[in-house]
TrEMBL record:
Keywords: Cell membrane, Membrane, Transmembrane, Transmembrane helix
Subcellular location(s) of the protein: Cell membrane
Entry's transmembrane regions: 20-39, 179-205, 217-243, 249-273, 285-303, 339-359
Highest taxon, organism lineage: Bacteria
Name of the featured protein: ABC-2 type transporter transmembrane domain-containing protein
Span of domain ABC-2 type transporter transmembrane: 21-359
Native source organism of the sequence: Acinetobacter nectaris CIP 110549
Pfam hit, one: ABC2_membrane_3
Keyword Transferase: no
Keyword Membrane (UniProt): yes
Length: 366
């Protein structure tokens, strides 16, 4: 026990003395927690450029344009009657959307409203960002058209349908920050542990042939485990509260899941680190994996829309199960039994990687 505690505290001392590892494991998590969400503090995009193609040029279309112009999320860059010209502007990424107000819109709306339409063409280059244009225009058009039809109620027998109110269940602010950061937070923990442990063990191996005895091996594991758990509670607790992200859906489930997740990632990191002989190579090889792991998590693009080989690969990655699991627990508040399959996968994976890491790092009988 005394030997275990010696190596437990020695690991903290080694982390403090290795500036790259200290920056990654300790400072990296703290700074990421503050600065990553800051970029999305506004939550929703504003001042998005659109082009209006007004082929009717009536009182109704003027009212629509004036209403849209007062929307803070949308900025009208051009009003034209040429749709092809507007299309070229969107293709050149000088605008994000086109609103087409067709010819005879005002008269057709009164004569045959059910067969009258307004065209909205949105650039697919930034779908998450430009969704704000669609929601903003929908509200503006609905109000103007309702007012217009009420004024001419005696002429038209058309009765506007009741408005549809969209109420998000989990991302209550419908913001980009509250969508992206809860998904990125588990990956931040994953990557800081992966890089920090990799550089630390590679540093040991560079100085000498590091072959830890069981007390040293598990003392090292316990020290990183303590750091990983504290980092998780810091991000899932304090940072989510600080930026008012959805949180605390299943607090007890999160407390159960964090130790299992951290143990799995430490074991994976120790196993991968056993293949490196110097700290610099760890960064060269592992840093680019962050983008790949996030893509394969199914957050930025649905897994079901990916090729089957990528779906199979994603299901083999602990990061995929962890990201989806913590979104379910922290934001959606699902019962713990729903995430038991993910907990079992992380537990078994962690045990396998821990055994493999011990075999590779433990001294062999010669």
């Amino acid at each position: 026990m005394r030997s275990f505690l010696f190596y437990f505290f020695k690991t903290f001392k080694d982390i403090k003395g290795f500036s790259a590892v200290f920056t990654t494991l300790i400072l990296g998590s703290i700074l990421y927690g503050f600065f990553y969400p800051t970029a999305y503090k506004a939550q929703q995009a504003e001042d998005l450029p659109i082009i209006i193609v007004d082929q009717d040029q009536s009182t109704l279309t003027n009212q629509i344009i004036n209403t849209i112009n007062s929307n803070p999320n949308i900025r009208i860059t051009q009003i034209t009657t040429n749709f092809l010209e507007a299309q070229q502007q969107v293709q050149a990424q000088k605008a994000d959307a086109i609103l087409l107000l067709p010819e005879k819109l005002s008269s057709d709306l009164l004569a045959n409203p059910k067969n009258t339409g307004i065209g909205l063409y949105i650039s697919s280059a930034y779908l998450i960002r430009v969704k704000q244009i669609a929601s903003g225009l929908a509200i503006s058009l609905e109000n103007v058209i309702q007012n217009h039809l009420q004024r001419f109620g005696k002429v038209s027998h058309f009765s506007p349908e009741l408005p549809i109110h969209q109420i998000p269940l989990f991302n209550t602010l419908s913001g980009y920050g509250s969508y992206i950061f809860p998904s990125v937070a588990p990956l931040i923990i994953h990557q800081t542990i992966l890089l920090g442990v990799g550089m630390l063990i590679a540093g040991y191996r560079e100085k000498k042939k590091w072959q830890p005895q069981p007390n040293e091996f598990f003392g090292f594991f316990a020290a990183i485990f303590a750091i990983g758990c504290l980092t998780s509670f810091y991000l899932f607790g304090f940072i989510f509260w600080l930026y008012d992200y959805p949180r605390g859906g299943n607090f007890l489930g999160m407390l159960i899941a964090v130790p299992i997740f951290i143990s799995c990632i430490i074991a994976l990191s120790m196993f991968i680190a056993s293949f490196f002989d110097m700290p610099e190579r760890v960064g060269h090889v592992l840093v680019p994996t962050s983008i790949v792991l996030f893509l394969l998590s199914g957050t930025s693009w649905p897994l079901q829309a990916m090729p089957l080989p990528l779906q199979w690969l994603s299901l083999c990655l602990p990061s995929t199960h962890a990201i989806q699991m913590f979104i379910q627990l922290n934001q959606m508040g699902v019962p713990t039994e729903i995430v038991i399959p993910k907990l079992i996968f992380l537990s078994i994976s962690g045990l396998v990687f821990l055994v493999l890491a011990y075999i590779r790092l433990h001294p062999k009988n010669e």
